[in-house]
Fold this protein.
Amino acid sequence: AAMDSGSARSELDVQEYEETLEARLGKSREMMRVVLNKAKSDPKRVALAEGTDEKMIRAAYQIQEQGIAYPVLIGGEDEIRQTAEDLGLDFDPEVADPQSGDWDHYADRLYELRRRKGLTKNEAHELVRRDTNYFASVMVEQDDADAMLTGLTHHYPSALRPPLQVVGTADDADYAAGVYMLTFKNRVVFCADTTVNLEPESDVLAEITKHTAQLARRFNIEPRAAMLSYSNFGSVENEGTRKPRGAVNLLHEDAEVDFPVDGEMQADTAVVEDILQGTYEFSELDDPANVLVFPNLEAGNIGYKLLQRLGGAEAIGPMLVGMGKPVHVLQRGDEVKDIVNLAGVAVVDAQNE
Ligand code: ACO
């Protein structure tokens, strides 16, 4: 009702809103263009685990047409080709059909990897034939594909578990984490961890920070990291604030860390220049942070969603960092453009392998 008080006012609001939206989308498109152009310069094979899904097929079409990647749709071949035709998509995608053809070598590999984790030979054969997340994970683990996308039709944890079990983490990693890149009118921030680790200890937070900083560099952004908390540099002392502070100590002792990082600090300290340069001028951060590391999964997941919806940011993600091979787990309900964007990110990851 307050908006009705003057029509001139609300027209102005609308105009301002549209300009902001345009600026924000411009920034976000620019960020993705960097990534998609890198991808196109050397496209890689990306396994789409949910190959029969309509959105995946539409995304595969765009990915192939634009030369971002060579998509491999995993699933029933007849169904995939029929769906593509029904959608009016004129392309001939590569399909890997777990139900036909000889995939015993994938089942054998899965068995080899998991037999000391309670998996039987029969179960391995069943999983490869019936669960495309396992099929795609083994395909990537065996280098028959360079990257994998999944998650549209599964709950996030169940889509994530097969790649965690089969592909595992990178040599320099013990933990995977989910990062969202949020683009605003004048800035970009990377939020972590938003999807994986429930209650990370200091060493986990430190690792997540390093991997998120590396990811930022893939987008040509120089990272400045803040370890977020409800406390500013020791202003509150308890178990909750000790973990992020411990992470900062680990990172400050780590000779590999070549970006500014500090904390623990409150979220406004992290993003407001005046606070950083005023009260906390001793901080390693002179400029607002663009890598925001949340103290736990609740804070991270809630925080990025509030930023996205109320702050009006464009979100790209969740991008998994720390994995042995590029694997990204989408959220249910993600759109074709989200899949295409993550395929681009996965290809750039694969180029760096
Ligand atoms: N990083 C890397 N590997 C991991 C991690 C991790 N953080 N956690 C578990 N693993 C590995 C384990 O080592 C194990 O490997 P192994 O079997 O070879 O030893 C494998 O993954 C499976 O481990 P489990 O213990 O069986 O799996 P768990 O039940 O702990 O599940 C999971 C792991 C799925 C990541 C779990 O921690 C989880 O559910 N996290 C929260 C996910 C979530 O709900 N996110 C929020 C919503 S998602 C969204 O908004 C997009």
Q: What stands out?
A: Residues 1-6 have pLDDT under 50 and may be disordered. The two ends are 55 Å apart (CA to CA).
